[in-house]
């Protein structure tokens, strides 16, 4: 297989932790260039990779077939559009776009150009989410009635000099962590019938959304997506209740923390395992073997599945080369942004909304 040249725009946290390490670990992809407008961090981290100072220089390079947009949220749409118009396949870090209108325009442009366009919804390959899917699939919970997903932080004051907390509709917690939670739900349950949400500012500092509760309504099921910047004591990452039992899981997927501590992602296909979660963080399944004796419960620790963000980029590689389907299609990016938009409408108007609105 001929290697697919990859260029990444930006060298912030997203590139350092999520894109460059996993692109570099997938056979068939070759990290060839990084856009860093100033500084030498990228050159020090990846001395074998060409460092360019402008998007135009990157897009003019015929060796680059795939462009990763890993820049501030409000720039995702114009940079992705520019890359598509230059004939490059594109991966866009979350959020896929600031609005569903922008998302639709990018999808239509990619289709017109015959190019692969993928939202970076890597959290489909989180260890905890894969474990939740396995528990749901094996029938242990009976008929699922509530699915609750939290992604919380404790940051009681605004951080200075970061675009993530600048007043802009493309920023804030809803557009930062909301795509992770909402996409996971949509990938399992599909489009909801209703969206009921509270999107708000809980901290004393005003001007930026820092908390949300989104209820996605399905027939016989409510799926909650919740996040707060004032979670000093952690809620369960996942809490599921069904007619036969419950599953509870604390803690986030270990891949990001490991990389922040300097871990190296092994080459895909090697014998080295990436990355087994510590047993202390495994979830608990509680069931009633006899539904007529609800007080007689059995608790079991459930070993976490192995999460692996390399699978996202392997899917992109296969889609570009024609060897497989894209596991996170562009339409998934549109669907997620549309739900987040309607969550704001629901919150502002104090009512449940439908996707058709």
From TrEMBL:
Q: Where is the Gfo/Idh/MocA-like oxidoreductase N-terminal domain?
A: 4-118
Q: Which UniProt keywords apply?
A: Oxidoreductase
What residue stretches are annotated with the Gfo/Idh/MocA-like oxidoreductase C-terminal domain?
Answer: 133-355
Source domain of life: Bacteria
Looking up NCBIfam families in the UniProt record yields: PRK11579.1 (NF008607)
The family annotation for this protein states: Belongs to the Gfo/Idh/MocA family.
* Stated name of the protein: Oxidoreductase domain protein
Q: What is the lineage of its organism?
A: Bacteria, Pseudomonadati, Acidobacteriota, Terriglobia, Terriglobales
